[in-house]
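INFO batch 0412 | record 1 of 1 | parsing
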Amino acid sequence: MRIKILSAAENDLEEGYRFYASQADGLGTYFLDTLYSDIDSLAYFAGMHRVVMGYHRLLSKRFPFAVYYRVADEETIVFAVLDCRRNPSWTRKKLLKG
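INFO prediction complete | emitting tokens
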């Protein structure tokens, strides 16, 4: 199954990278490696995650982030990669905008 990451989700990943890169050397790169690995797992497990606000939600195993995606035909589309520590109303607003 093909995976497409929208530019909004790429921006979310960049924001997470900048945050973790400022915390410790190499942590930003580890963050990206981990989240892209989680996203790559959607090639096998897309559609198996709980639906939240109209999106499937994959929770990262290493970082407090969630990948919000939809499955359409033979493609998985990643709409957002959001920090779970944020206010739930912020998350809801971000997802309704997408």
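INFO post-check: The chain has a mean pLDDT of 96.
INFO record closed
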